[in-house]
Amino acid sequence: MKKFILFFGVLFLTVSLSGQKYQGLALTPPMGWNSWNTFEVNISEDLIRDIADILVSSGMKDAGYSYLVIDDGWEAMARDEQGNLVADPKKFPNGMKAVSDYVHAKGLKFGIHNCAGRTTCSGYPGGMGHEFQDALMYASWGVDYLKYDWCDHGTGDARQLYSTMRDALYAAKRPVLFSLCEWGNNKPWEWASDVGHMWRTTGDVTDCYNCQGEYDLGMIFILKLQEGLERYAGPDHWNDPDMLEVGNPGLTLTESRAQFSLWCMLAAPLMAGNDLRKMSPEILKILTNRQAISINQDSLGKQAYLYMNHLSKLIYVKELSGGDWAICWHNTGDQAYIQRINWVHFGFLQGEYEIRDVWKDKIIGTTTKNMEIEIPSHDVLLYRLSRKK
Ligand code: GLA
Hints:
By secondary structure, the chain is an alpha/beta fold. It has eleven helices and 18 strands. The strands form four sheets. An eight-stranded parallel sheet has the order 9-6-5-4-3-2-1-10. A six-stranded antiparallel sheet has the order 11-12-13-18-15-16, with helices on one face. A two-stranded parallel sheet has the order 7-8. The chain is globular. Bound molecules: alpha-D-galactopyranose (GLA). Alpha-D-galactopyranose (GLA) is lined by residues 36, 71-72, 113, 120-122, 149, 181, 204.
């Protein structure tokens, strides 16, 4: 009996002392806006207030974009004498709590960026060795979301460093969505589902379709790197192929629509990264397409898999709740082609389905009839199939 009690005592202690992430903060892929893709470190309290206002007035918040995340560049270059992080007094003269209060007053959630290494990728103080102190500071500012980068980590072990920050956030007793930004270097999909709510799978996305920079990749290369990762994603633990470039200058409207469709299919976090102050109505329409978003936010939480990869013809398939399916055809080539759709080839379908064209926003028929549709270069067809009752 004594042994029995001892066994359960030790078990209880181990479970209660072992670290954990805040569960249930990302049952569907997180949605929001992040400052990096457009503004890099050129951020300020005024900009963030403007963005918060527009997230609400444009209808983006109502469409699901709930996190406003300030990326790198918000800090002063050094910690204070007590080792606390401080906001850059020029960019954020009223401190981060004031910004957070503004964002919360708009009904949005507040996110911030730092790094598991000694300094961030832009050279500001990183979190290494200060995790518990920083987590308390974030809690006092009302932070709801932490993006944690991977620069200047030296010989640090990714799993260990990210787990330390997870434990620090938990100890600070404020639920914070933890977004690992480790670029896929250490295959976080294999170990991070109990560390964070999402993890980057690649280096940085940039606003072009098929270019490559030193560390940046166009959307088509990022897409390629997601193949085979679908089995690691699910509610509360998502693969993150990096943020949206929708509406940024290097993508055409067609490519913006394609990125949005494909990221929705991948159950990717939808973090807009465009200048909302200059957003065209067409881009707003893309970002707030309810049908596309409902595919992304589907409660089953399945990431699409590449069903067919035939030269420039990609077909992605995503299983949805209630027996529905989403299918996305993507033309990666330079020329338009005619896509023949013979529904018999989609062996997972059972019976007859109604087909909704997401971008036309209408029902275009049922799977009893084969189809021929032109897909322009870099464009997509995005269909939702619902079983006919
Ligand atoms: C890394 C990340 C980016 C961004 C920058 C900030 O490159 O991958 O998303 O956060 O750092 O310096």
